[in-house]
Q: What sequence folds into this?
């Protein structure tokens, strides 16, 4: 190898070393920046962009893929301690002509939070109705996961003209066979609480049957965000899990006119799959699908199977 070539190689290696050192410093000083970069990569893979919408006195942060009018409009609503990014694995599995919107509910993720606002399930359902009013037409399908299922169910019961079909995924809001999670919530605890990196991994072990590997600095970024939200999460959990609105949806199930898909995983340790039977007993028109070998996060654990189920549900007579 000649001297000029060796010199070029040394320059390249030095540049790589500087780049790696810079990334390491960034990871230490601002792990949130790298997590945002990872979400941007996932958005690109999903063909989704970020938009901001003003509705119900809040600024909403929304993931959007597809174009209005190109196919069915589908609205995705995340669960407790979740965000619009929870749908990034599902979105690429959905038909390319679907117009898909994944929202951060007010108070969560990148959407606006106000200190004086009520973020319980009824208030959120009413806000979701106002968000839908900003769309050209009601969505063909609203998909709610966990707390988002509770909110979406209340939306369907209280604002029946805002949607055509409803999918409830591991949805809260009704009684089910009591498990360790429910016992802890009813005792006043928050089993989802995260204050450090170890808490992130405990949380993942609770909601996933096979937890994803989340290395540093991403777990550090997640821990910082969740620690900042501890008081907010506690207040919302009171409303959705223990307060007078926690089981309101169960009494309103007969008011839901839209056809409903009930989708659970058989190893859900948060909202026991017996909740699906409670829903089915109260609904006018429902069908149930229980996926095997997964936990509380079917949009992330079984995105392909869930996408197939949603396609079949929309195609049904």
A:
């Amino acid at each position: 190898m000649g001297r000029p070539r060796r010199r070029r190689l040394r320059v390249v290696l030095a540049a790589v070393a500087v780049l790696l050192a810079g990334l390491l410093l960034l990871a230490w000083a601002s792990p949130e920046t790298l997590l945002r970069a990872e979400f941007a990569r996932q958005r690109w893979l999903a063909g989704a962009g970020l938009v901001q919408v003003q509705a119900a006195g809040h600024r909403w942060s929304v993931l959007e893929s597809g174009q209005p009018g190109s196919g069915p409009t589908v609205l995705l609503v995340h669960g407790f301690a979740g965000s619009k990014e929870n749908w990034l694995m599902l979105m690429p599995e959905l038909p390319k002509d679907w117009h898909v919107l994944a929202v951060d509910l007010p108070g969560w993720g990148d959407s606006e939070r106000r200190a004086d606002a009520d973020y319980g399930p009824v208030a959120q359902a009413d806000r979701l109705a106002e968000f839908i009013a900003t769309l050209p037409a009601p969505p063909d399908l609203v998909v709610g996961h966990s707390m988002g299922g509770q909110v979406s169910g209340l939306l369907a019961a209280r604002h029946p003209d805002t949607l055509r079909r409803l999918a409830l995924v591991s949805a809260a809001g009704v009684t089910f066979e009591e498990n360790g999670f429910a016992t802890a919530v009813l005792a006043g605890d928050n089993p989802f609480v995260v204050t450090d990196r170890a808490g992130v991994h405990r949380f993942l072990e609770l909601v996933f049957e096979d937890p994803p590997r989340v290395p540093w600095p991403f777990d550090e970024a997640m821990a910082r965000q969740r620690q900042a939200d501890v008081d907010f999460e506690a207040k919302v959990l009171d409303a959705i899990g223990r307060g007078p609105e926690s089981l309101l949806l169960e009494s309103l199930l007969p008011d839901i006119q839209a056809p409903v898909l009930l989708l659970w995983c058989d190893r859900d340790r948060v909202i026991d799959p017996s909740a699906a039977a409670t829903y089915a007993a109260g609904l006018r028109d429902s069908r149930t699908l229980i996926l095997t070998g997964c936990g509380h996060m079917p949009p992330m654990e079984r995105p392909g199977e869930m996408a197939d189920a949603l396609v079949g549900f929309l195609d049904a007579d």
Observations:
- The mean pLDDT is 92.
